[in-house]
Specification:
The protein is an all-alpha fold. It has five helices and no strands. The protein is elongated. It binds protoporphyrin IX containing FE.
């Protein structure tokens, strides 16, 4: 694995960075550009329907990048020997951040799916309950964790 990392280091680090850009950037665009625009839609049913649809698109775009982020991270852990180095706490911190972000993403997907089902059944209160938390808490939490992971990445990049 170390040999592969050394041979393809540029590609592996590039894939790692571009995955973070798509995942974190996608959430920022959704939360602070698209979502603000959706709030202008007067019909609550139509508004929730549009938000649910946009979230479905976002999640299907980011999932491959979330996986690439992890695979490239594993190559870097092995390639740099991070677990045996002085930088192991930073590596573990990034692994923990990825894990929390991943679980948060999975719960968001479940809530969105449930919200869409409630919408189709005409249960507006149920749909709102499922979808509201995604925009209010869960996406901002993942943005904050993503920014922290990027900061730790910058630190590692300038120290290794
Ligand atoms: C899964 C655990 C992770 C590990 C072990 C890890 C490890 C690393 C390492 C070793 C670097 C330095 C690469 C180099 O310069 O050669 C790096 C950079 C970077 N990481 Fe991660 N990372 C992880 C997760 C994440 C996550 C979740 C994000 C953001 C969502 C992220 C975003 C970045 C970015 C943007 C850089 C580039 C920083 C720069 O070049 O200045 N990483 N990461």
């Amino acid at each position: 694995m170390q040999d592969i990392f050394l041979e393809y280091k540029v590609v592996i680090v590039f894939l790692h960075v571009i995955s973070a850009v798509v995942w974190v950037g996608g959430m920022v665009a959704m939360r602070y550009a698209a979502h603000q625009s959706f709030l202008e839609i007067e019909s609550p049913a139509k508004r929730l329907e549009r938000i649910a649809h946009a979230l479905k698109r976002l999640f299907s775009i980011v999932i491959p990048f979330v996986i690439i982020l992890l695979i490239t991270a594993i190559f870097m852990i092995k390639g740099y020997g991070l677990s045996q180095s002085d930088f192991s706490p930073f590596s573990y911190a990034k692994e923990a951040i990825w894990s929390v972000m991943f679980v948060n993403l999975m719960v968001m997907i479940l809530r969105r799916n449930r919200g869409e089902r409630f919408l189709n059944e005409g249960n507006m209160v149920g749909a709102k309950g499922q979808i509201e938390l995604i925009g209010k808490v869960m996406v901002p939490l993942n943005i904050a964790l993503g920014v922290l992971a990027i900061f730790l990445g910058t630190f590692l990049s300038s120290s290794l």
